[in-house]
Write a structure and sequence with these properties.
The mean pLDDT is about 100. The strands form two sheets. Strands 1-2-4-3-5-8 form a six-stranded mixed beta sheet, with helices on both faces. The protein starts with 6 loop residues before the first helix and ends in a 5-residue tail after the last helix. About 40% of the residues lie in helices and about 15% in strands. The longest helix has 21 residues. It is built from eight helices and nine strands. By secondary structure, it is of the alpha/beta class. Bound molecules: para-iodo-D-phenylalanine hydroxamic acid and zinc ion (2 copies).
Length: about 290
């Protein structure tokens, strides 16, 4: 069951979420020619995230960052922050690190993927920064994941979710962030209703309304396995996917050379809402203190 009783930690983490930080990470990631799962720059993009998460958490003895290898070139990245009192219970926050402009993407093809999904990686990266800046220590273990090869069939998250299930890991909840920065519809945050967990979705809506009272939260469906949340759902884990807009209002530039920060409005103001929500999710599901 979900409780909302860690306000001092939520408010401290949310205060650290920074539009400039998120924008900077989006710019860095979208400057790789592409982050396609088979290319050299796709590997470099993953390594950049590993280096960034490692640098952010270098002062934390409870944190470690690993590359997760797959059968293709691009690895996934997993940052683990050990829980203080319930370390066997794991809270997963994920986004995908690959980008595409569709079939034919290859070495040298330009695919910036600023919204899809540098925005998700950048949003999670700022939550990591907030955790370190505040000195927050979770009661449960946190696993931040950058998934490889989402665009070619949710392949990186499928490998990882299947592996976690086969090891019987006690993942108590999963949050997916894929496209957080294109403000395309009337409401601020849309909770995806399919291939997700309805109880956790209600918890997420509660968190948004409790800790970002001015936000409006809607719901929408994908109608198919549209991102990495489906990999976790397929393994029977409770997953939620807060999304930038309705299906029809979502970023029309994705999977093209025009998926740039500029085409998302030139700032990360929309992504900040998701960063604050993810921070609240961490503090209220993984509990712990500063
Ligand atoms: N199709 C997904 C993006 C996507 C996800 C949800 C909705 I509603 C609309 C669009 C994708 O390209 N993920 O990488
Ligand atoms: Zn995509
Ligand atoms: Zn995506």
């Amino acid at each position: 069951s979900y409780t909302v009783d860690n306000a001092s930690v939520v408010n401290a983490l949310q205060a650290e979420i920074s539009e400039a930080n998120i924008r900077s990470t989006i710019n860095s990631l979208s400057s790789f020619t592409n982050r396609y799962y088979t290319t050299s720059t796709g590997v470099e993009g993953a390594e950049w995230i590993r280096d960034k998460w490692q640098a952010l958490t270098s002062s934390r003895s409870d944190a470690s960052v690993q590359l997760y290898s797959h059968s293709w070139a691009q690895p996934s990245v997993i940052l683990t922050i050990q829980g203080q009192t319930e370390p066997d219970e794991i809270v997963v926050l994920g986004a995908h690190l690959d980008s595409t402009v569709g079939w034919g993407t290859g070495e040298g093809t330009r695919a910036p993927g600023a919204d899809d999904d540098a925005s998700g990686i950048a949003t999670l990266t700022d939550v990591v920064n907030a955790i370190v800046a505040t000195g927050y220590k979770p009661a449960k273990t946190l696993a931040f994941m950058g998934y490889a090869a989402e665009e070619v069939g949710l392949r990186g998250s499928d490998d990882i979710a299947t592996d976690y299930k086969s090891q019987n890991k006690n993942v108590v909840g999963v949050l997916q962030l894929d496209m957080t920065n294109y403000y395309g519809s009337n409401s601020d945050i849309y909770i995806i209703g399919d291939y997700t967990n309805s109880a956790q979705n209600a918890f997420l809506k509660d968190l948004a309304q409790t800790y970002q009272g001015s936000l409006s939260v809607g719901t929408t469906n994908c109608g198919y396995a549209c991102s990495d949340h489906a990999s976790w759902h397929d393994q029977g884990y409770a997953v939620s996917f807060p999304f930038e807009a309705t299906f029809n209002g979502s970023n029309p530039y994705i999977h093209t050379v025009n998926d740039t920060l500029a085409s998302s409005g030139g700032d990360a103001n929309h992504a900040v809402k998701f960063g604050k929500l993810a921070a609240a999710y961490v503090a209220e599901l993984a509990k712990g203190a500063i």
